[in-house]
């Protein structure tokens, strides 16, 4: 995979991202479908296709029969562990067809190629992890066993080529495969309301929108649909600072971010109702990666790819979403220099190229313009900044609760789907934002409170003090929980 292009520090957002304010309906299919606009946020600019060109009919046939429970409610290939033989028997090598997917002007059709990538990645994960699914079904307490360690050329070739074109690793990912490019609308006229969302592909029972698998994925889409305001607010902060605009305009940008995060976190909280914790381990089998997983001790050979040397990829993970990394960069949250943070950096490669470029731009600009330093010079901005940090904290805290209740309490498997240590990885980032909140409060607001200066008092104090008390309590509680789980698991 080639590195992202270097973005000139002096360039404006519009120069680097010329489509950021465009009407998504006017964007050509030659653009990466994750091209960011202030209308669609981090969702693709167009709902993903549900079918592929006719040449890919053998792939479509396998995918239609793949789920444990098919769309018509009958058992599919994974229910009887017959997917592997069917792939070897039925699927021709269509690698050369990927480059033939072009628009009317001869440009590569990245919209369709992304759908091809999604579908081959679903097939690849199903093929590699089918033995683990069988082991888990027949003896849930016995672990996952070993997955298949060779991906057939008929799957490996097209998946690898599509990944090359799109500049993403050739393995199932959160945005390009599992979630954000894997939904359609039951009634296009009703738009992006949760009850109108449907999955295109699923492993277990997800073609039924009432299932926990569907609920797990669709909840993420429901959250990301509210990112346009987040993008708009972040751009207002960055662009105003770059142009020497007013503090009040920057503050309004933070208010836009806060309003968007309220909606996003409300959607996130619906996960408990949309996807039962007791169901998660079942479909989770299929979203594990290759890196740091007991199922693939020697990696996986992609037949005909990279000299048949074993490859290692991180699995699908909600940590690959771009919402919180965007705020990490804007707010200049310092992460500890640990192996756990290195995993956080590795996850960046699994985001779509437009997401990576936009996040890198915001990271560079926030550092160049000194967003944090600007914020703490004024009490009102400091409080808005601190409240934004608090959303990062509450988002990560809820993510920790999900990990604890859906996974840690239910399985001894030591790693998350992306290959990170299940007990310690999320607390690494959560602790970092808590530390930053405490530091800003103690260094900036607490002295102003003591001196009775700069407008800190009354309503401001009533807003901040309970928030900081909760942060301190939560920090202590998190440390105790992590210590408890580490001790129980011998970590």
TrEMBL record:
Gene Ontology biological process: L-tryptophan catabolic process to kynurenine
Family to which the UniProt record says this protein belongs: Belongs to the indoleamine 2,3-dioxygenase family.
Entry keyword set: Dioxygenase, Heme, Iron, Metal-binding, Oxidoreductase
Gene3D superfamilies: 1.20.58.480
Coiled coil: none
Catalysed reactions, as listed in the record: L-tryptophan + O2 = N-formyl-L-kynurenine
Biological role stated in the UniProt entry: Produces N-formyl-kynurenine through the oxidation of tryptophan.
Annotated heme b binding sites: 399
UniProt-recorded Gene Ontology molecular function terms: heme binding; indoleamine 2,3-dioxygenase activity; metal ion binding
Enzyme Commission number(s) of this protein: 1.13.11.52
InterPro entries, per the entry: Indolamine_dOase (IPR000898), Trp/Indoleamine_2_3_dOase-like (IPR037217)
First-level EC class: oxidoreductase
Name by which UniProt lists this protein: Indoleamine 2,3-dioxygenase
Organism: Aspergillus calidoustus
Entry-linked PANTHER family: INDOLEAMINE 2,3-DIOXYGENASE
Pfam families: IDO
